[in-house]
Design brief:
Layout lengths: L4 E11 L2 E11 L4 E5 L6 H9 L6 E7 L2 E4 L11 H11 L6 H8 L15 H15 L3 E5 L7 H16 L3 E5 L10 E4 L12
Parallel strand pairs: 3-7, 3-8, 5-6, 6-7
Antiparallel strand pairs: 1-2, 1-4
Helix pairs in contact: 2-4, 3-4, 4-5
The chain binds adenosine-5'-triphosphate (ATP).
């Protein structure tokens, strides 16, 4: 079985006909984490989507070994389903281990909400549900776009524990965040260092 990993080399991104960034390198090995930093609109979410294979890099190479699980501001859960059923749909698609969803719901303190329709969940509860989907997936590579948004202190602690546990098991985490995230010693990628300057076009 090949070892999981995520390697970016010289990655550039253009969106809407505008170059956002270029020259991004990232080498993620088991147990590694990376934090994407930078102001609004610099391209953090775009880079996360490139890592996920949802957006094509304009230049450079992306080598991904192993499954990815991603979460961003889109919940991707059926609003009409009770939470557990909505999460179970994804667990089946992800061929998650039978007990993985129970463990993930416990990790995000979601057990009391099992039967609550997704549409009735609060902002922070929805975020915890999205994180439970990632945790249950069993994917080695987690791509987390603003995972702390809407989380209270207790939930941020749970996120920190989940991330630490994932890394300890040889998982990888790439996160974009404006707020401090409980990552022990991430590689910090300052996106402004890669921003495309207008004068470079001349
Ligand atoms: N589908 C799209 N088509 C065209 N341009 C887009 C599209 N999605 C994003 N952009 C543009 O790409 C740029 C980077 O957006 P992105 O969401 O990657 O930034 P970000 O660093 O994650 O920002 P934030 O901190 O606000 O979340 C923005 O200028 C945005 O308007």
């Amino acid at each position: 079985m090949s070892r999981a990993g995520l390697h970016l080399s010289g990655v550039a991104c253009a969106r809407g006909g505008r170059l956002l960034f270029r020259g991004v390198d990232l080498a993620m090995e088991p147990g590694g984490s990376a934090l994407l930093k930078g102001p609004n609109g610099i391209g953090k979410s775009s880079l996360i989507r490139i890592c996920a294979g949802l957006l094509r890099a304009t230049a450079g190479t992306v080598a991904r070994h192993g499954r990815v699980a991603m979460t961003d501001e889109r919940l991707a859960l059926d609003m009409e389903q009770p939470l557990e059923a909505a999460l179970r749909f994804w667990a089946r698609l992800d061929t998650a281990a039978p007990m993985a969803l129970d463990a993930a719901m416990a990790a995000m303190a979601l057990e009391p909400l099992r039967q609550v329709p997704v549409r009735m969940l609060s902002t922070g509860q929805r975020k915890r549900a999205a994180l439970a989907r990632v945790i249950a997936s069993g994917a080695p590579i987690w791509l987390l776009d603003e995972p702390g948004n809407g989380l209270d202190e207790a939930a941020l602690d749970l996120l920190g524990q989940a991330v630490a546990g994932h890394l300890a098991k040889g998982g990888m985490v790439v996160a974009a965040s404006h707020q401090p995230l409980p990552l022990a010693s991430p590689v910090v990628l300052a996106m402004q260092d890669h921003a495309w300057a207008e004068e470079e076009e001349a």
